[in-house]
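Minutes, methods subgroup
Present: GH (chair), OT, SY

1. OT presented the first of two proteins processed in the latest run. Sequence and structure tokens recorded below as shown on screen.
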Amino acid sequence: MALTSIDLLIVGLYASALLAVAIWVSREPKGQTKDTADYFLAGRALPWWAIGASLIASNISAEQIIGQSGQGFAVGIAIAAYEWQAAIVLIIVAKWFLPIFLKRQIYTMPQFLDQRYGHGVKSIMSVYWIALYTAVNLTTVLWLGGLAMNSLTGWPVMVSMAALGVFAALYSLYGGLKAVALTDIIQVVILILGGLAITWIALDRIGEADGALGGLSRLYSEMPGHFKMMLASDHPAYGDLPGIWTLLGGLWVLHFSYWGFNQYIIQRALGAESLAEAQKGLAFAAFLKLFIPLIVVIPGIAAVILASQGALDAGALADKSDRTYGELMKIAPAGLRGLVFAALIAAVVSSLASMMNSISTIFTMDIYRSMFRDRPERHYVMIGRVTAFVAMGAALLLAKPFIGGFESGFQTVQEYSGFIAPGVVAVFLLGFFSKRTNAIGAVTALFASIGVNILLKFGAPEIPFIIRIWFVFMACLAAAIGASRLMPAPSAEKPVDLQDIAFGTRAIFNVLAIVVLVMLVGLYVLLW
């Protein structure tokens, strides 16, 4: 179903407002030019509400909206574990990890590794993160966003991807992180309003005369299997979400890798005006995380009944569950369809802009600057912009061959990330809390992560992915500790000195943390 004039007007107003705000916040004072702190860390002046909103806007991309809607259709509410457990991890990262990062005044995650382990570990991880963000994250967001646009507009997927990439570049390349973070406030509002609209429409169609709340009640009573957080061992999706192991296993490792040590996420906190602001921002994001399944998973579950009623194309959904959200968008009435479409664009371009900025930050500050020192600040900013543009072009070319053949884009990202995530988490945790771990131990953990993953994936394919990640993580810890003991201890200045780092938190953070934990316990009790 094509977009109507009112839909196009809404999308046009959204795009115009976004570009106007990006230009306004990116303007430079007379006689000044952006330095690297301005471009890559927003001048270290981001307030808590911008940090929290930007975290959610960057995270809720095509992977979540499209991928998790598809998983909601195929599996059910169990996929919400990726959202709800993230809320706990955000609280932990805010309290125990951010104080260490901000004390060291770092720009990037590789920079911390350089300070803690040395140049070799930093170089390995810099290359890895640039490759992952470009070949996996950017490509997945582009591909899934292109699929959804194709479902609604009929544009070819490649054209749709190019349009999304160009739009993201238009508002982010000039202004850097400040433009990305502050425009993300608009993105979050549009994303939530559009997500709630599609949820309400889908549930209302099910409820018929009883409305959206009646539709939710009917959905819960008619599809109890789709409202179970803990899947039974004979469930077809047990390999991806293995029951109690989603609480006890490697999903925590993936979360800590993503929310704690992932440049394109943690960069917002590194740009905070203070530690207290950064911590409040992460607590705010944790609170918002609790409601994300309402706008990404519930519509996917509703699509099961809507497809059986003939309201959606059952054949298209059976062929590829990632088409669920695009099909749901078709049933929205004129006007609301434009809002939902704008929300999808907001989710995609905010994530694209964030990834482009992080790729440019790592390449410029951790690779290029180490080879070409003492250049003017504006030179490094220019290199960052060129790097972001090149990364987007590469992702456009790689999207279809890398992601197009997989059934679920969301699970594909987890699989790719899982090869190195256990090693990353082991290296950072030991870097924080083990003074004896050295560079040899860190490198051993990173290579063990890949090697043990491959060994278990092909040698023991019956082990569910999340359980495998936990086994690999434990192997990485053992490998790092063992290798470090065989070699001399690191020099005295390398280990993190925790004595002068304040881990205390403000009252507002503590209250938000308690609220998040109580709500999570209630959700798991209700949906166990």
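2. SY then presented the second protein from the same run.
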Amino acid sequence: MDSKQLLITRITVIVALGGFLMGFDASVISGVVRFIEPQFGLSKLELGWAVGSLTLTATLGMLFAGPLSDRFGRRAILKTAAVLFGVSAIASALAPTFFILVLARMIGGLGVGASLIVAPMFIAEISPPKMRGKMVSVNQLNIVIGISTAFFTNYLILRWGQSDAAWAQALMFNEYNWRWMLGLETLPAIIYFIGLMFVPQSPRWQIMTGRVDEARVTMNQLYGEHEADKQIQEVVTSLEKDIDKDKTSVRELFQPALRLVLTIGVALAILQQITGINAVFFYAPMIFEQSGIGTDASFMQAILVGLTNLVFTILAIMFIDRLGRKPLLIFGMTGIALMMFLLAYGFHSASYQLTPESIHSLDETIDRVALAENMGGVTYANDLLFKQALAETIGYEAAIEHESAIITAAIDMNPTLILLGILGFVASFAISIGPVMWVMFSELFPLRVRGIAISFTGFINSGVSFLVQLVFPWELATIGNSMTFLIYGLFAVAGLIFVWRIVPETKNKSLEELEELLVRKRPDNFP
């Protein structure tokens, strides 16, 4: 790797720290929900709101981040995102009420939306075609590192809360466990803000705003003089073809010339979320608790989810420019469908029965007499019937507080099947539509509309993610574990058909070449 490639890599790593913060901020809530639900007395939809509120404002952040980055520059918007992450972390950790917690999470959501849109766009604009897939995927890699870090720190804090060590007692990890989980994000937010001071402006943005001489200096550093001249000419030519057009607006995305790329972008945006990835990431311990392994083990298995995500994202980065975008999507969507069907089967095969021995093993704070009288010896065919009987027997609040322990005592199923299904699903997602969607977002749209187009498709992606997060606890409580995962699997099958028939291959083509193929020529000339 020569000095110029090292420079591009260094800039990419710094910019992609926004992905780390996004991943950490989004998934740290997975460990928090276990504690805030009984503390604040939340309903299932309120619990979903606590998780999804960040994504709701991330949706708004995505909508405006692109146009704002076109006006003020990519780097300025990322610095603002770093500040929002830090403010959110501090406010979340100190939140005295559920309302304040949600408000603090929503502030962080604005940072998430901005970094999700601007970071991959920035990286794509500084990367040469042969490096672009790998470099843009670094942002997705940092997202999964952030997710893994959140799972790991959540588990550590849970363990420290159970420790008798003087330092752990002094820091009150047990009393303030979920507050520590949320507050740790302050440190990487500060590091990100400082790191961005050493990053140049996007040269393509400089050209778009008429600062060609400044862009030439930046491109000379990144590519060398000969390649810089070539890239500048391509960008200028692309912009000149659009010079007589009005100022870019969302309306322009619906012009016939952009119909193909917009359809692909919107479909990928929906598909990435509708298969349930953020339900798994944001509720991983809750899902594992449903298999009866207990709270501590569920947090430990969540770490395996993060590690699996990390390993297969690295594999995606290794193969995305070698095999191409479409083969990875086909492979991944097939795996997602199969794993969701496996999860649906695993939970469908479960049964629940409280025996005298299992009731006696429960904590004394649980009304064991009521359980023995009303549920002892009764076999329940699914989780819905069991949870309904449990709430009727000991009350809704007590059922929520002790659900994990009681399910562990009553369930008869193979929890390894659930673990394999979840890990297989995450692996399939991480090697395919997780990183590939963002790479293709940065490739599909022409420069003139790239900012607003990525914001628009990101808006849809985040909106679907919010709905999935909001309703997931309600789905588990209303239609059950098995049916919830079956629905996700059917969505994956529909997505696989779309990818196979419609999505084009974009590897090894410059952004300007892709514009010529997908936009300026007839869409039916491109497979």
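Chair's summary of item 2: The radius of gyration is 24 Å.
Next meeting: continue with the remaining queue.
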